[in-house]
Inverse folding.
């Protein structure tokens, strides 16, 4: 049992972090998956890190799904006029 606990303590947050991208793609080996799940069971900060990573990946995928066109990032005429008026008043 002591040997098992020593092995658990050797799998660090840094180790989990380095496996995180591979884990997101679902490409961990059985052994890597075992150690990652074991570490996540005892490390709340890494659980939070993985949740944040999943959230960022999801937001990035949604953002990439929307294609930007020149029209989508141009100011409306109303916005341009409001800026002109504010510049004239300063």
């Amino acid at each position: 049992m002591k040997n098992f606990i020593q092995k658990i303590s050797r799998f660090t947050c840094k180790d989990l972090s380095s496996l995180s991208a591979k884990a997101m793609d679902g490409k961990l080996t059985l052994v890597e998956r075992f150690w990652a799940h074991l570490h996540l069971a005892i490390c709340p900060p890494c659980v939070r890190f993985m949740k944040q990573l999943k959230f960022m990946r999801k937001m990035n995928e949604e953002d990439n799904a929307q294609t930007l066109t020149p029209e989508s990032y141009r100011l409306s005429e109303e916005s341009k006029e409001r800026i002109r008026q504010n510049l004239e008043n300063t």
Q: What stands out?
A: The first helix runs from residue 2 to 10.
